[in-house]
Design a protein that fits this description.
Keywords: Hydrolase, Protease, Serine protease, Signal. This is PROPROTEIN CONVERTASE SUBTILISIN/KEXIN. It is found in: Secreted. This protein is α/β, with parallel strands linked by helices and 644 residues long. 19% of the residues lie in helices and 22% in strands. The protein contains 16 helices and 29 strands. The protein is globular, with a radius of gyration of 26 Å.
Length: 644
Amino acid sequence: MEGVVSVIPNRILKLHTTRSWDFVGFSKGTLGAPLEGNVVIGLLDTGIWPESESFNDEGMSAPPAKWKGKCVGANFTCNNKIIGARWYNSENFFGTTDLPSPRDSDGTWNPYLFNSCWPADILAAFDDAIADGVDIISVSLGYDLPIPYMEDPIAIGSFHAMKKGILTSNSAGNSGPYPYSVSNYAPWTLTVAANTIDRKFVAQVVLGNGQVLIGLSINNFDLNGTPYPLIWGGDAANFSAGASPAIAGYCFPRYLNSYKVERKIVLCDAMVTGSQILKANGVGVIMTDSFDSLDSASSFPLPATVISNEDRVKVLNYIRTTENPIATILVAQGWKDVMAASVVSFSSRGPNPITPDILKPDITAPGADILAAWSPLAHPSIDRKDTRRVNFNIISGTSMSCPHASAAAAYVKAGHPNWSPAAIKSALMTTATIMEPGKHVDLEFSYGSGQINPEHALNPGLVYDASEADYINFLCKQGYNTTTLRMITGSNSSVCKSTTPGRAWDLNYPSFALAVEDGQPIQGVFTRTVTNVGNSSSTYTVSMSTPHSVSITVEPPVLTFSKIGEMKTFTVKLFGPKIAQQPIMSGAITWKDGNGHEVRSPVVVYNILPGRRYGIPTSSMTDQKTDKFEGPSMYHKTGILGRN
C-alpha cells in the first residue's frame, strides 16, 4: 500500500531509579527553572501512577508553548509535570487488572506477556512523541538477541527522532555479564549501562553459633531476632514429586517437602522468588547468587536475604555439624558501599553484536537499588502473588539507569537548546567520570566512556557532531542499499551512493573501537572532527594512554581554535602485531586545553571471529516477499521485546 515503508514481524521487546543524583555529583542543576523547565522528556515504558508524589508538580510552570501533546485514557489527569500521556495496545491483549489508560496497574498489559512490549506500539509512540514536541526520548526496553537496524523498532524510531533533533537514550539490557549481550546498539542512540551507588541494603543472617553473615535484600519483615530451625533445601526433598536432594537444594517449585520445611528457615542454592518456601509453610529463606556478585538487592514475600557462595558453604557446614541448627534474618539496613561505583553483573555487555567498530554501551549511570515510584496495584516483590502494596519501591536494572542518562541529556539540552542529538551525546560521553578498570574484567564493554557527570557535560569544550547524512553513509558501508536504507529512514530521498562494504572508522563517534579478526595484525585509521563549544580562542593538545601491544598516533597532535563553532579534523592510527583470542585492550585519547577542558575518548582493541567486521543484513533479513525471519531463537521469532 502507498505510504507503507516496510513490513517487519511484530516481535515483543523486553522492558529494562534519592541517593543516586548526589552520588554522581548532581544534587541540583545550576541552570535555573526558566531554562530547565523548557525541556520535555518522552518516556516510553509501561505506564505511570500520576497521583504518586514523584509526579507532584508543585512549583512547576505550565508546559512550554511548543508542546502539542495531550492526555489520553480514562481516569487519568495530567499536570505541569506529567504534561501528556498516551497508551498503546496494538495486539489488544488485556489482563484482568489492566487499565485502558496510561495508568500502570502491574507493569504489563497481560500477565502472560510479563515485562513485554510490542514493536508496533513502540513505533506509534515514537511517532506521537516526535509530533507532540519532546526534546529527549527515554526508552527502557529492548530485544534479548541481536536484530538488524532495519527490523528494530527502537533503531527505526530513534533514527526518525534524530532527524528531528531528538536524542534517544536507551537501556543496555539486563542480560549481563555475558559478552555481546548489549541491546540498543544503534550509533545514533545513547546506550546506557547500570552501575552501583554508594548505598546498599544489607539483611544480615545470624546463625546459632554466633556467626553473622552479610546478605543483600530489601527485607522489611521483622522476626524480632527470634531464631528458627534452619534446614538446607536438599534435606527437605519431596521424593513423591521426583525430587532428589541435589534438585531440592535449589528450592524449585513442588520439590520441597512441606512437612520438613514448615516453620523453618531454608537455605537454597540459587536465587528464588520465595514463593516456594511460602507454599511449603517456611518462615524465611537464605539464598545464593549464582554469579556471586551481590551488587543489588531485591524484595521478597517473606524474610529473605542473598549471601555469597563462600558464606553459603559456612551455613551448610554449620547445618551439617549442629544437631539442631537455628538462624534468624534481620531487617534490612542501608549501608555505605565503599566499592561503588561498579557496573552491576546483570548489566548487558559489549562488544556490539551488529557493528563491532562501534563501542557499546556508550555510558553508565546509577541502576542498582534505586528508589522509584510504584503502582499501588502492583506486587512489590519478585513474587507476583505477594499481597502487600507500596507507593515506592527499590528497583535495579538498566531501566533505572537509562532515565538518569535521559535526565542528564535533558539538562545539557536545556543549556544548549540548539545542539544536535550527537553533540549532546558527545558531551555526556567525553566528560564522563572514569570507572576503575580493576573492578571490571570486560572494561569499556561494561561501562563505555564511564559514569554520567551532568554538570561537567554542560561545558565539554569540544563535541563530536554527526548528522543524518553521516549515519546514512555509515549504514551504506554496513551493507545497506537504497531499498533497505529507506526502511530505516522512512524517506524516499535517502540514497546509498555506494554499497561497497567498509569499516565504521569514519563515523564521527566519541569513542574508538577496533575489531581485529583472529590472527590478524592491529591496523586501523580513524577520522574524526571536533567542534569548538568552549572558549572562543583555545588550543587543545592530545594525550594518550595506550593499550598493551598497541601503538597510537594522532595527527595533528595540537588543535587550535579561534572561534566558537569552528571545526578541526584529526586522524587516529592504531597499529600493532598480530593478535589472537584477545578479549579487550583498553586505552584513551584525551584533548586538553589547559583551562579545565578534558575531552576524553576511550580506545578499545579486541579480537573477533572472521566475517564479523560489518553489520551487513543477511538475505533472510532483507527478504520483503515473506514475513519469515531466520531468528536465532523462538523468543526472537515470537517478536518479544522486554523490559530492562
